[in-house]
Amino acid sequence: MSNIRKLAANVMHTKIIWPITALAAILLFNLFFVPGFFNIEIKNGHLFGSLIDILNRAAPIMVIAIGMTLVIAKEGIDISVGSVLAISGAVAISLLGVVPLWMAIVAAMVVGVLCGLWNGVLIAYLGIQPMVGTLILMTVGRGIAQLITEGKVLTTDNAAFGFIGKGFFLGLPFSIFIAAFVFLFVLYLKKRTALGLFLEATGSNKISSEYAGLEPRKIYLFVYIVCGLCAAIAGLLVSSNISSADANNAGLWIELDAILAVVIGGTSMRGGRFFLAGTVIGALFIQSLTTTIYSMGVPPERIMVVKAIVVIVVSLMQSDRFRRMFQQKNKQAVVG
Predict the structure, then answer these.
(1) Which residues span the membrane (predicted)?
(2) What is the four-CA torsion angle of 258, 264, 270, 272, rounded to 10 degrees?
């Protein structure tokens, strides 16, 4: 019996268990209260259904959240990713028909890298607080996107470009494979290179890492560049999915969903250890919650409130301090 309790305690303290539990809970809710939620149809060799739709729509959040995980592991934050997404999408759409498709895609990704470089220089080398530094680009970025689109919603009928966000590969949305590639690539960097160790070392104790010969500023710069690149990839996914570039609405508030996905996934805002798998599950939870709310017919003006309540509950569930308080109250109740 004691071994079972120890095993249960170890499982409860595993970071990944809480996002998995939250995702399982929302899926279980849909099983009982949303008819047809788990139905999957095959049309023209492609899979369709709510679960497939969740995977497809979660892809941009997932990609941005992966980049955000690296930034948060360095005790940073990037609230400009939504604007970078809008800029990159605007660049890609505006260049289609002028240059080859691959050049438009590369240009959009280069813009994302430059935006990340801008944030990294402001924060790592000029000492500006991450929230303030990225707020600059968050504000200016929408204006830049509007300049590129000339204040209009640009559209495209390029089928090859549309395949990125709307196409199917092996029966599944192509966006899923892009998100999976980004995840596996960053996971490889974490597990198979010194980068993961350096990130966790400089994030948890900056002074000690400097004494150890590491250069936190360069790592800061690197993670913001990666985050900018991830935002650009998400911009390609979003703009190709809707075949347009909307400077005002593209990626609006996606930075909040990305940050929530990282936190729900178990990565601490104080930096240090980070959990990429938890981030992916967190992104799936956020999108599953959004899809569920729409399926339940909740009025649009109440959606953010419902999401906030659920996220607060999930965050409390994975809080070590909250769990200790809950356990102490249970013990007192048993003794009483």
Answers:
(1) 16-42, 54-73, 79-99, 106-128, 168-189, 219-238, 274-296, 302-319
(2) -90
For residue 215, give the 3-state DSSP assignment.
coil
For residue 322, being part of any structural domain is answered with no
Domain with 223, as residue range(s), is 48-317
Provide the whole-model pTM.
0.89
Tell me if 6 is assigned to some domain.
Answer: no
Per the CB < 8 A criterion, the answer to whether 88 and 207 are in contact is no
* Distance separating alpha carbons of residues 110 and 115, to the nearest angstrom: 9
Is 32 inside any structural domain? no
Read off the DSSP letter of residue 193. Answer: S
The DSSP element (H or E) to which 178 belongs, if any, is helix 174-192
Please tell me the distance from the alpha carbon of residue 187 to that of residue 181, in angstroms, as a whole number.
10
Residue 49, SS3?
Answer: strand
- With beta carbons less than 8 A apart as the criterion, state whether 182 and 274 touch: no
How many domains does the chain fold into? 1
CATH number at residue 211: 1.10.3470
pLDDT digits (tens, 9 = 90+) for 172-229: 999 999 999 999 999 998 888 877 777 766 655 565 556 556 677 888 899 999 999 9
Q: 123: closest CA among 112, 132, 114, 110?
A: 132
Whole-Å CA distances, 111 to 21, 48, 133, 207, 295: 38, 33, 18, 33, 36
Write out pLDDT tens, residues 280-322.
999 999 999 888 888 888 777 777 787 778 777 777 766 667 6
The answer to whether the beta carbons of residues 118 and 177 sit under 8 Å apart is no
Q: Is residue 58 part of a domain?
A: yes
Quick one: tokens of 145? 């996107």
